[in-house]
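Sample intake sheet
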Amino acid sequence: MKTNLFLAASAVVLMFGTSAMAQATMTVTNDGEVAIVGLAISGESSDDFGDNLLDEEIAPGEGVEVTFDVGDDCVQDVQATYEDGDTEEVMGVDLCEGDGFEVEDED
């Protein structure tokens, strides 16, 4: 079975306070056959993915907007968790550019 995860940028918002915090909002589309139940990011220098960013699962063929807090570095690693328990990662994604990328669930 092959599952693809596509991200496309819909907006990038920069918020400034005592420290700069960049947020990237993207549409995450599930182009596969298994629901995506979790999505997390991690800085390239960290092995730990953060909390699940999804409020709802992404059914096959559906898409939802997700806001990523990217801090000072737009380049992040992204992990998708599928309903069947599989996880897939895509490394070194520039979430602020929003060119899109694929995650393939090859089980």
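Comment: Strands lie at 3-16, 20-30, 36-43, 63-71, 75-82, 87-94, 104-105. The first strand starts at residue 3 and ends at 16.
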